Amino acid sequence: RIAQYYGLDLDVDTVAKVTAAMSASNMKKMEQSHKISTNAAGPKVRSAGKTTFRDELSKETIEVCTRYMEKLMPKHVVQAFTELGEQLVQKNRAEAGGGG
Q1: Would the pTM count as exceeding 0.70?
Q2: For the chain, which terminus, N or C, has the lower number of CB atoms within 10 Å?
Q3: What phi and psi values does residue 56 have, to the nearest 5 degrees?
Q4: Distances in whole angstroms, Cα of residue 11 to Cα of each of 6, 7, 17, 19
């Protein structure tokens, strides 16, 4: 969908290859083999999973990033991400036995 949004005409095979190459596990392998930067100031491959950024970033950092993105993105996109985030949190709580 992102490629379509930007007007890129990609076939299913290309999308599958890109998806595989950019998986968290493959990115970690590239980081470990120094094919991508591992310095502290550069990009870092974070762990992947359900809302793991909440475990890796402070509440203050999440709030700053959220406010910044709210300024950059159209309101309907912010709303869609907000709703999706709330749904994921509720789903994760339910799966963990914490209710909704």
Answers
A1: no
A2: N
A3: -100, -20
A4: 14, 13, 10, 12
